[in-house]
Amino acid sequence: MRPNIVEQVDTTFIIIVAISAILLLLVSAVMIYFIIKYNKKRNPTPANIHGSTTLEILWTVIPIMLVMGMFFSGYESFKNMRSVPENAFIIKVTARMWQWSFEYPNGKKSDTLYVPLSKPIKAELTSNDVNHSFYIPAMREKEDVIPGRTNYMWFQPTSIGSYYIECAEYCGMNHSRMLTKLVVMIDDDFDKWYS
Ligand SMILES: [Cu+2]
What's this model's pTM, rounded to 2 decimal places? Predict the structure, then answer.
């Protein structure tokens, strides 16, 4: 079973926010402590600061490990996003100013993206005019849609419902209204709609 992209992205996000918050608190606390401890009244002559090899190694190695941790956490989800499962259901997504349209393998077309719950979905993305960006916040994925080129995105629906699809690349006058819905249905309902 593949890891869930939504959980992977959220985990990376939490790791980065947690590390940032801990560092902010730590640095601020040490700063306040030093301001009090080494103020001019208590220390009329400035302290003599010598180099410390141990400290320098520590403040090089620890940040490298933290940054590598963030990188690998993000890279794992990126690898997953970029390798589409073989059994994916392929839907062609076309962007134009200012709407989305979807075409299914049997030729059916729609303005709303209907998908079955049980299948991984591969969206093949093309644009008829300018650059757009296909963004499904609930799936934590966003991909550029470029004229003259086919990009892709895949996602695994996990619960039935209706989710926002947005354009995330400024594409002119009505960009902010370039919205539609992703509707995840149980397979029977999808089959009824599809056939
Ligand atoms: Cu747009």
Answer: 0.85
